[in-house]
Amino acid sequence: MASNTTGTSSSGLNPNAAAPVWRQFSFFDVVPVKDPHDLESSPYIFKVAAEISTMVSSSAGMLVADIHGSVHLLNREFESITSWVAHVGGRVTHMVERKGTLVTLGEEDTVKSPLLKIWDLENRDKKTGAPNLLRSTKIQLSNRPHPVTTVALSATLSHLSIGLGDGTVILYRHLDQSLAGSTSLTALPKSRVVHESPTEPITGLGFREPTEESPNTYLFIVTTNRVLCYQASGRGSGGVPTVVDEIGSGLGCATMDWRAHDMVVARDEALYICSTDGRGACLAYEGHKSSVHTHLSYLVIVSPPFFPTAAAASATVRNFVARSANPGETDITKVNVFDLDNKLVAYSGAFKQGVREVVSQWGKIYVLSTDGNLLSLEEKSTADKLDMLYRKSLYPVALNLAKTQNMDDASVADIHKQYGDHLYAKGNYDEAMQQYLKTIGFVQPSYVIRKFLDSQRIHNLVTYLQELHTLGVANSDHTTLLLNTYTKLKDVNRLDSFIKTESRRDSGDADELPFDLDTAIRVCRQAGYFEHASYLAKKYERHEDYLRIQIEDAGNVKDALAYLRKLGPEAAESNLARTGGPLTEPEEDQEASGAKQPQAPGPSYLSYLALNRAAAIAAPTVISAAETATPPSPSIKTIRADTISAPRRGESFYEPAGRAPTPPPRTGSAGTNAAPASAIIQVPAPGPPVKRLSPRIYFPHFADHMEQFVVFLETVARRRWGQSVDDKPAGSIGIFGRKDQDDWEISPQQHQRQLTFLDEQHEALVDKQDQVAVWNTLLELYLTLPLAPSSASGPNRTNGAAKKSELQQGSVFSERVMRDKALRVLGSDSSQIPFDTTHALILCSTHAFTDGLVLLWEKMGMFEDVLRFWIDKHNDGSSPDASDYVVQHLMQYGPEHPELYPLVLRFLTSTPELLRKHEADVKEMVDYVDEEGIIPALGIIQVLSRNGVASVGLVKEWLVKRIKESREEIHNDEQLTRSYQLETTSRRKLVEELSDPEQPKVFHNTRCAVCHAQLDLPTVHFMCGHSYHQRCLADHDAECPTCAQEHSVIREIRRNNERLADQHDVFLAEVKENGFEAIASAYSRGLLNVNAPRPEEQQQPGF
Q1: Using an 8 Å Cβ cutoff, are 889 and 926 in contact?
Q2: Higher confidence at residue 543 or residue 1061?
Q3: Which of the listed ranges 351-365, 823-837, 927-941 does the model predict with the highest average pLDDT?
Q4: How far apart are CA 926 and CA 940, in angstroms?
Q5: Over residues 565-572, mean pLDDT
Q6: Calpha distance 744→731 (Å, rounded)
Q7: Which residues of 33-110 form beta strands (DSSP E)?
């Protein structure tokens, strides 16, 4: 009867106790092996099974020995590869093979003692084809021979052991060295008798191979009554074998396990596992056993033949009886294949006529029956075996099987998944969750989570989600779900434990969290666990999240401010840009002490937005302006220094470089405490500039705090770029200050030198854009303030604060002061105070700021727009004095821009009322444009006569004067014309005379034109009328010396004109500039008739 009971007792099993039945499966299929040439029968070599003496497996193939002394090496088709006679005239009793070396033990007729032969299967004799014989010797220790019962060969060929029927064990050491070092057939190492027991025949031998844990080789010796262990190598070897167990076994019922680690001893009552230290596990399996064999990790047990009955305890036998017609006619042999690791029977079958041999070869179990049939037990695939176990719901067995089969992790996880599904279907949720936990990393978490979303199973869900985070495979959704379950269960302790987990279980990085930090913070905030959310944000330096929690959720503004003071400059500024909106609300309103003048509201986060980026921001400090009225701007604690001349890090905003910072007030509220003016210390030189943030990122936070916005922008412009429009001492407008605050004012030249520290031009460009944005916004605020009390005050201010704000507006933020600042901005040099002119024009137009519009138009040279603006004002009747402004601006712009006069003349003569009001101005304009030649007289007449407003009497005197002057000009032009006509006539007559060769020329000159002496022969006369002594003329001088200079000048002018004729761009430029005058001048210079013959090409006058 089979049993799965295990034990370690050496006294055996209790015969009266009922042993549970081993789980039995059909993991092997029985396949008959057929001869490849005769598919109806078994392989030919097994036809006569009675002649088979032994069969063993080998690396070269299956070895079969017969009673005639022959050995056959078979291939997979069980065809003989080679055969040879190993023992002549005898038989082979035992065979064992390792690494291609075969050891045979047999009997021969001529020798009384058993013969030991060693063969080389890899090298064969060229003549016979048989393997080479390496050694051959007799096994004889005394005169009386004893049969060999068993043999064992170590895997390394270093040890060979032979057991005899008289209880003697022979050991050959260093066999491998002997085989390699000598060619003599009898050269074997000296044998050693390691055990003798005359009354206990040797039934089994086996070598335990050396391992890393135990580098020694041990020999197990099994007798009919005992199991012994002998140390064959290593330190301490060669002693007396030690008794491992007092229970032995029959012949063939002892074998080494598949790891070659322990000896398995099979007895009728149980299976015993013996190690070098003693007997180990005892597996109860009752029944007679004739032999045991190993196949991979399985143990094959063969029972002796018996007659089956329907009352047999074995289910295999009962099934055989049920299937057979005449089961009692023949005996059967039962073969069981045990899986010792998983404690199950992998196969159990009955074979008729008995079993002769069992061999493990090529991954299969071959069973040779006594009638010559060869059967193969082929193991099913792992998938088939698992399916079989799944159908029987044997998931633990499936898991053990997967482990022994070395399946991959994904396959094992799939078994756990199916096991969990099975337990879940049975309602065993706790155990199901334990299985699902082992699938993490292979099964989608959503598959498991959906099963446990019910509120009754939420504790199991928490367990699964916690393990996901512990293993580091959770995502943000898992974190959200886990935290929601904590909050739903109100389990603060587990929430604390989860939140304060330092790192993953398997991670070496102490900073790596087992959950998504952003998700954890978000869920804790949504669930109202602000303390946990702020803990995470603060610990892991999520500054923005921490500030939002304290400000938006917990409403703890003081803690937020204290946290900001501890941050570095960059972190403080960037987080203020994101979360600074609520901090613009004052902490408390300060009441006036002594004086009735209202004080500024309590310190707000504006203190952080000044320009001193202190690493350790000091406590709130308020400094009032000395000997000046206290302005109504917020108290500023510290100011950020983005420029070199600004205070260094750690200095107060109000303290210039070289001065001691003002100590904080003794009370928590910001009052009017002022620092002693004499507190001065030596301050080291400022360090290099730090990277500056853009002030534009803070603009949205001042939406409801316009007064503070003005203070902030003015402070930034003054401290960062040295730009200010205040004509008063620093600190008297916009911020609290002192007289000595002028010390830290910087000039534009100093700021320009600071820009040289910028590493990249991009930073300079961004800095310029920031300046423009600041001044654009300031200009808009100057034109917007003062606001109505309802809009100027924040939504949370009390009525008292609103009234106080109104009082403040009456001084610093009054319309007069704001518009005056706007004018100073608009009138400043663009290099000193940059702003967008187009933006400024839109603002001035939107807010009806006339002075600003006029000033901008004047700066942009848009003088006509100024005049048209006032003209439009007059036309729509919004300004009664608009016409006076038109005349005034014309007098201002007219001398440099005469094109404005026609526009003004048309305007002043557009209506009778305007003409009556500005009649004298019109007369003066007419006289001026006429004198300066700005407008032709006809143009003036056309302008004045376009409508019926202006009469002739308006310009009667000017017309009379102009007519007289025109008549004089006409008279003068007529006289000039007549003189030009007379000169032309005389010139033409002269040309005709000179051109007529028959017309004689009479010379009346009596003196030389050069020396002025009396002419004498030889004399030279030129047609131009000049006469010379021949001696006074140069050689080859064919031109009159007197006229030659005048003619050369004319020729040079003509050549220049011809060159200019090819320079069309110059000509076109003159035409665009002077119009028709340029064309007339070109005609007069001959530029448009360059093809006319040159004067020098014409015939010169002769003599």
Answers
A1: no
A2: 543
A3: 351-365
A4: 7
A5: 73
A6: 11
A7: 52-56, 62-66, 70-74, 80-85, 91-98, 101-108
Tokens of 125: 């004799």
Average pLDDT over residues 113-123: 91
Contact 19, 5 (CB under 8 A): yes
Lowest mean pLDDT among 66-70, 102-106, 830-834: 830-834
Angle (nearest 5°) at CA 542 between 609 and 687? 45
* Reported confidence tier of residue 75, pLDDT bands at 50, 70, 90: very high
* Residue matched to tokens 């405490």: 673
What is the rounded distance in angstroms from the CA atom of residue 726 to the CA atom of residue 192? Answer: 117
Return the sign of the alpha-carbon dihedral for residues 925, 929, 930, 936. negative
Q: Spell out the alpha helix ranges (H) of 909-955.
A: 912-917, 919-932, 937-944
Phi-psi region of 786 (alpha: psi -120 to 50; beta: other; left: phi over 0): beta
Q: What does DSSP assign to residue 1050? A: H
What does 273-298 look like in DSSP terms, one character per residue? EEETTEEEEEEEE-S--SEEEEETTE
Closest by Cα among 60, 166, 74, 180 to 121? 60
Task: Dihedral sign for Cα 867, 868, 869, 874, please.
Answer: positive
User: At residue 101, what are phi and psi to the nearest 5 degrees?
Assistant: -110, 125
- What mean pLDDT comes out for the span 632-658? 32
Q: Kindly report the number of other CB atoms within 10 A of residue 939's CB atom.
A: 14
The whole-angstrom separation of Cα 742 and Cα 930 is 56
Alpha-carbon separation of residue 3 from 6, 283, 350 (angstroms)? 9, 7, 19
Cβ within 8 Å of residue 844, ≥6 positions away: 783, 826, 850, 852, 853, 856
Higher pLDDT, 923 or 752: 923
- How are beta strands 344-352 and 23-24 bridged, if at all? parallel
Q: What is the pLDDT of residues 393-446, one digit of tens each?
A: 999 999 988 888 888 999 999 999 999 999 999 999 999 999 999 999 999 999
Domain edges within the chain: 386-451, 475-504+512-573, 705-721+766-782+813-860
Query: Which residue bears the tokens 């204290």?
Result: 562
| Phi and psi angles of residue 418, each rounded to the nearest 5 degrees, phi first | -65, -35
Q: What's the rounded Cα separation, in Å, for the pair 697 and 973?
A: 76
DSSP 8-state code for residue 553: I
Scan for tokens 């939107």, then name that residue.
846
- Please give the Cα distance from 498 to 535 (Å, whole number): 12
Over residues 786-826, the pLDDT tens digits come to: 754 444 444 444 444 444 444 444 457 788 888 888 888 88
Calpha distance 210→219 (Å, rounded): 11
Q: Is 621 exposed, middle or buried (0-12, 13-18, 19+ CB in 10 A)?
A: buried
950: Cβ contacts below 8 Å, ≥ 6 apart: 909, 915, 922, 944
C-alpha distance from residue 20 to each of 285, 286, 341 (Å): 10, 11, 17
Contacts of 73 (CB under 8 A, 6+ apart): 58, 60, 61, 62, 63, 80, 81, 82, 83, 121
Q: Which residues of 900-924 are buried (b: 16+ CB within 10 A; e: fewer)?
A: bbbbbbebbbbeeebbeebeebbee
Q: Which residue has the tokens 């300060």?
A: 590
- Catalogue the E-assigned strands of 109-217: 111-124, 131-138, 148-153, 159-164, 168-173, 191-196, 202-208
| 589 DSSP assignment | B
Q: Which helix (H) or strand (E) holds 870?
A: helix 863-876
Question: DSSP letter at 502?
Answer: -
Percent of the chain at pLDDT above 90?
22
Question: Quick one: tokens of 244?
Answer: 């491992």
DSSP 659: B
Quick one: tokens of 145?
């021979």
